Predict the structure.
Amino acid sequence: MQDILFQISGYPEPTPPTAIEQAVRFAAVVGGKLTALAVHADIRVPDNALANYLIGLNRLAVEEEARSRQACEQVLSDFAAAASAGGVLGDTLLKKAELFAIEDVVAVHARTRDLCIVPVGSGFEGQRAIAEAVIFGSGRPVLLFRPGETGLATDGLKTVVLAWDGSRTSARAMADALPLLKAAGQVRVLTVLGEKPEARRGMGADAVRHLQTHGVAAVADEVNADNRPIGTVLDAYNAANGADLLVMGAYGRSRIREFVLGGATRHMIDDPKTPLLMSH
């Protein structure tokens, strides 16, 4: 993964230094170059003579837009310094878009990258919309993590878990993650039984066979859902095995500008307890 895009935010909440530091160190681990993309808000308001007279609405919009741009420029500057010091600096990109179209700009830029890294979690308003847009709109793998809580591996990938149910999306995720799987100390191919009828005993063996032809030391594992939500099953398995990364396919479809997500996809995007690579 030589060409990695890192989505950063300046407005309304700036990406914290911990997120920048972890992304830089992760890029160094996988041997890639990191390009940061910040999109500042084009804030437009309807022409309203009364609002302009009473509160200076147009002036407030201009001030907020300038604040957004300045915040993005500052975060990009902080990133450039960190990435340069870490030897992984690719480029810095500053774009402009209407507030509710920022995620589309990120998705378009991710289409020509090997990987897009998106920090998510509590305190990052709007990041879920960006994560969903990139997962379902870029055609490329997306790496989600919660800065300060589920940090990216910065000293090598020891254990990577591949969630495998034999579906098209899980096959896509396996292929997209192959460079990271090759770099891992061990890969565990996990099939959760009793959650989907198509997830059957023994089906992980062929995924293991395929990975081994690429030099990946993988083992197949199976756990029974026992009526637990699949997100809970995955969280427990990752914690028990010390997973540095979970690889899984993303299930969902778009409806206007709202995504209808599968249960595991929704759970993992909302609260990723392990850094998560998703493909659709």
